Amino acid sequence: MAHDPPQMQTSDPAVMRALAHPLRIEIMEAMDELGEATASEIAERLDQSVANASFHLRLLASAGFIERAEPRGREKPWRSKHRGRNLRPDPDDPSSIAESSELGALVVQREAARMAAFLRAAPAHLRSGEWIPAVTVSTATFWATAEEMAEVAQELATLLDRFEDRRDPANRPEGAVKGRLFSTLNPDLDELIQGADDSEPSDDGAS
């Protein structure tokens, strides 16, 4: 029977803390791409010892991110329990917000470093020009309410739904390669701070 995992959705700070490690983020990406893998396969792919890979796999399993797949003879592979992960924090739980922010910061650092490495290597690999229009680095400034910005976030989240079935190699058209999308969206921190200051009562009013 085909493995059809559900979407993961949690704001549990302990669960997010379990993922907030550079190697465990890499392991989950590998799991998403491979479908399933043994500790030895993960170790080889990520240039780690089998013991270290096994340690981090067990931590991910205890937090509910992965589970055992069907045995392959004597091999015992792991697989992701979910087809995607929504780890948006609970707005009423400061620890949930803190853990989600830390996890997000690690992902941004990793993806920014990956993109910078790609751009530096690109001149040697984009000489034909075919893929140049597919590469973009863009920034934008705009003014929106919290509700409008949340709508943009949802639109970004669903942007790639039309490619979801291509996780199966049989559904990929000729010439398709793995693409990477890295996007960020956030209200300006200075304006948030200024808005909070403006909403606080003044102490210099007349009594």
TrEMBL record:
GO terms for molecular function: DNA binding; DNA-binding transcription factor activity. It comes from the Bacteria. Signal peptide: none annotated. Residues 71-98, 188-207 are annotated as: Disordered. Residues 14-93 form the HTH arsR-type domain. Keywords: DNA-binding, Transcription, Transcription regulation. InterPro entries: ArsR-like_HTH, HTH_ArsR_DNA-bd_dom, HTH_MetalResp_TranReg, WH-like_DNA-bd_sf, WH_DNA-bd_sf. This is DNA-binding transcriptional ArsR family regulator. It comes from Garicola koreensis.
